[in-house]
Amino acid sequence: MVDLLERTRPPEVTETPGVRRPVARWKWLRDNILLVAAAAVALLVLGWALFPSVFASGDPMTGVPAQKLQGPSLAHWFGTDNLGRDLYTRMVHGAGNSLTATLTAVAIALIAGTILGLVAGALGGVIDTVVMRVVDVLLSVPSLLLSLALITALGFGPRNVAIAVGVPLIANFARVLRSEVLRVRRTLFVEAARASGVRWYTVLVRHILPHSFQPVLALAAVELGMAVIAVSALSFLGFGAKPPTPEWGSLISEGRNYLATAWWLTTLPGLVIAAVVIAAQRLGRAVERNESA
């Protein structure tokens, strides 16, 4: 009877690993197409900033007057400006200036916010109250208005633009890290480290900070997009590098006088900035989702 049942049992369907793997990869790509696109945009813009001559070998400072205000074409992907300069070349070479100021601003906010949030959450008491009241003051002032006040006091230039953009962002990092420090310092392994006689600063650096820092990294990716907008806004207002040095915001400012006749001078740089901001936001959300999973 057992042999009869074995012969009549339908054969098991075996899955070939070589067939299943491409299907799984395609499903992952289909479900994460926006994330892949965001990563591609980030890598492309990073390549512009690091190796501008590879992506645009022309001179961003000089142009051909006879070719001024030409629309997008195969010869000039983003068209030309009022001096005959290739707009795509200026966008590529301006990526380094804009992203340097943006990354510097985020680094300033990340470092200062981490220190303030760590001290406030770990020490508590009067120090926590004072730090958080300073954070509340920073949050009560619109970031762009505070950046304008700082850049007016500091003076023009990319370095001052980075400082002016980075200072308003400190409050967000400080609040996030403080909340994480308050959560982590009540965990069992931190209490065990304290009970075993480990010095407080060792517990702070070795145990509390590493377990509180991941949400801050996700916030940094999100704030990177906002910093791009802020840096471009200050550059648009003329607080950035001096002309003819290309910056994304200044390129839009130069093209605003030709909106009726040369739409590409403002539209295409604006689309690039929008793509970078959306990509940064998408990557930041992905990091936050993976951290909470």
Can you describe this structure?
With 293 residues, the protein is mainly alpha-helical. It has a single domain (18-53, 83-292), classed as MetI-like (MetI-like fold). 74% of the residues lie in helices and 0% in strands. The protein is built from 13 helices and no strands. This is ABC transporter permease. Belongs to the binding-protein-dependent transport system permease family. Residues 95-284 form the ABC transmembrane type-1 domain. It is found in: Cell membrane. Keywords: Cell membrane, Membrane, Transmembrane, Transmembrane helix, Transport.
CATH architecture verdict: Orthogonal Bundle
SS strand fraction: under 5%
Low-pLDDT parts are none
Shape: elongated
End-to-end gap: 51 Å
**Biggest sheet overview:** none
Q: Mean pLDDT, rounded to whole units?
A: 85
Alpha-beta classification: mainly alpha
Tell me the total number of β-strands.
0
Per the CATH scheme, the topology name is MetI-like fold
**Class, according to the CATH hierarchy?**
Mainly Alpha
Helix content: over 70%
Number of contiguous helices: 13
